[in-house]
Amino acid sequence: MQALDTTFSALGDVTRRTILEKLRLGETRLSDLAEPFDMSQTAVSKHVRVLRDAGLLTIEKRGRTRHCRLNAEAMKEASDWLQDYQAFWMHQFDNLALHLADDS
């Protein structure tokens, strides 16, 4: 459950979700990840570190540059956990639809 907590904590920040969205398009240099944000390279690096520690991305150093790559596999546990609740809510909505249909 600790890994799930770490994943959701990492995903709880809009900057980190934006970084993951950018990485969904492909590998990116760390310096390029910082461009769209109104914050220092150091601040972006801290967000990247949280994502790396959560297993959501990997960092590879090549010469002087660091390249980041999405690790979507790490989100599978969170996705599986959420799917259980999706089934619960679909059942609740089906029951509500039946209740409303009975009242008609």
Could you characterize the architecture of this molecule?
It is a single chain. The protein has 5 helices and 3 strands. A hairpin with a 2-residue loop joins strand 2 and strand 3. The longest helix is centred in the last third of the chain and has 28 residues.
Whole-number count of domains: 1
Q: Strand percentage, roughly? A: 5-15%
- Write the CATH architecture name: Orthogonal Bundle
| Biggest sheet descriptor | 3 strands, antiparallel
Helix count equals: 5
Mean pLDDT: 90
By CATH, the superfamily comes out as: Winged helix-like DNA-binding domain superfamily/Winged helix DNA-binding domain
Output the structural class: alpha+beta
Q: What is the topology, as strand order, of the major beta sheet?
A: 1-3-2
Distance between the termini: 44 Å
Instruction: Give the low-pLDDT segments.
Output: none
Radius of gyration, in angstroms, nearest whole number: 19 Å
Using the alpha-carbon principal axes, give the shape. Answer: elongated
Q: What's the total number of strands?
A: 3
Give the fraction of residues assigned to helices: 55-70%
- CATH classification class: Mainly Alpha
Order of helices and strands: HHEHHEEH
CATH topology: Arc Repressor Mutant, subunit A
